[in-house]
């Protein structure tokens, strides 16, 4: 007898503000970014640990998550019920730039 485990798959929706950027990535052939977005449908606690997803709570008390994608891209997403909304994508260097600016303004 073999035990089977089924994964719950979630609906993943890309926010409309991201569509122009995704068109650019598709034109560049950045398939890895799309594969990561597609993989979010399998989101679970195990998935969080395997993919090293980071979680942050914003001032609006909504939990946002960040996952790494190939070529130093980062993808931000959140939940609306069981649906995952992909909200933003940016390069890791942009995050470092904001961190540097924040550090300089607190000195």
Written account of the structure:
This protein has 107 residues and is an alpha+beta fold. 37% of the residues lie in helices and 29% in strands. It has 4 helices and 5 strands. A 5-stranded mixed sheet has the order 1-5-4-3-2. A hairpin with a 2-residue loop joins strand 4 and strand 5. It is globular, with a radius of gyration of 16 Å.
Keywords:
107 residues; alpha+beta; five-stranded mixed beta sheet; 4 helices; 29% strand; globular; disordered N terminus
What's the arrangement of secondary structure elements?
Blueprint: E1 12-14, H1 19-28, H2 31-39, H3 45-51, E2 54-57, E3 63-69, E4 73-80, E5 83-91, H4 92-105
Parallel strand pairs: 1-5
Antiparallel strand pairs: 2-3, 3-4, 4-5
Question: What order do the helices and strands follow?
Answer: EHHHEEEEH
> What's the gyration radius in Å?
16 Å
Number of strands: 5
Total helical elements: 4
Helix content: 25-40%
Strand content: 25-35%
> Alpha-carbon distance between the termini?
64 Å
Q: Within the largest sheet, what's the order of strands?
A: 1-5-4-3-2
Mean pLDDT: 82
Shape: globular
| Biggest β-sheet strands, sense, barrel | 5 strands, mixed
Query: By helix and strand content, what is the structural category?
Result: alpha+beta
Low-confidence stretches: 1-6
């Amino acid at each position: 007898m073999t035990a089977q485990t089924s994964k719950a798959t979630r609906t993943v929706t890309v926010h409309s503000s991201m569509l122009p950027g995704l068109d650019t990535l598709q034109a560049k052939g950045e398939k890895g970014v799309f594969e990561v977005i597609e993989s979010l449908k399998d989101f679970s606690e195990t998935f969080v640990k395997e993919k090293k997803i980071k979680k942050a709570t914003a001032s609006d008390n909504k939990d946002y998550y960040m996952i790494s994608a190939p070529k130093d891209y980062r993808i931000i997403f959140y939940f609306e019920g069981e649906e995952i909304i992909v909200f933003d994508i940016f390069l890791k260097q942009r995050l470092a730039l904001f961190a540097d600016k924040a550090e300089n303004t607190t000195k």
